[in-house]
Amino acid sequence: MNLCERKVLLLSGPQYYNERKPASARISRFYEHIDPLGIAIVSAVLKKHGFERKWLPIIPGRVNKLEKYIEEAGFIFISARHFDTSLTQEVIRIANKHGKTTVIGGYGPTFNPSAFEEATVRVRGEAELVIEKLVDDLLTDKPEEIYDATKLPPFDLKDYIWPDRNIFPSSHLPGRNLLKRHPQEWQRGCTKRRLPFFYRPQHGGNSQ
């Protein structure tokens, strides 16, 4: 594996952005103070395997600005939601143009995997359950099209992977936002039908 292939570009849409309700972005700006922990958990695993990681937000109207970073990376990991599906699709098309491997996770492909069919890999459910196998498969150039964690036993929080917050600029810069450094949030452990980033559906149960 060459040096370029050891570089991973991590992407996620703005926490406050909803392409279905663009006008709501202004009143949802509070969410930009909350780090997308799912992609940070992925970064923690990639760090353990010796990958160089860089995180960037996918900004509406500026997706083309990511092209130079996509060209420099070997793998593109994206946390996708329903609310920024079209942004993710734009990134995938750019990455495909440059022959890059794209890995898409989040509750976007969990609920609607067909919307991300152009990606190299789609992850359904909580990433912790499948990411070690996924990384091993990427290293041997034999990735599967879908890694479906929804068919596996629920994730045990005793095996929780602490997010790699160092990928976010505000986590280490002087004058950082303390709320962004220590947000009061939790994005793992729920066994119901709602989870940010990597969601695990339960069969035969009701949402609560």
Report on this structure.
With 208 residues, the chain is of the alpha/beta class. It has one domain (4-181): 3-Layer(aba) Sandwich (Rossmann fold). It is 24% helix and 14% strand. It contains six helices and six strands; from the N terminus they run E-H-E-H-E-H-E-H-E-H-E-H. It has a six-stranded parallel sheet with strand order 2-1-3-4-5-6, with helices on both faces. Strand 1 (7-12), helix 1 and strand 2 (52-57) form a beta-alpha-beta unit. The chain starts with 6 loop residues before the first strand and ends in a 27-residue tail after the last helix.
Top keywords for this entry?
208 residues; Rossmann fold; 6-stranded parallel β-sheet; 6 helices
Which percent range describes the beta-strand content?
5-15%
| Main pleated sheet | 6 strands, parallel
Number of helices: 6
Radius of gyration: 16 Å
| pLDDT < 50 runs, ≥5 residues | 193-208
Euclidean distance between termini CA atoms: 46 Å
- Tell me, what is the CATH class? Alpha Beta
CATH topology grouping = Rossmann fold
What structural category do the secondary elements indicate? alpha/beta
Q: Could you give me the name of the CATH homologous superfamily? A: Response regulator
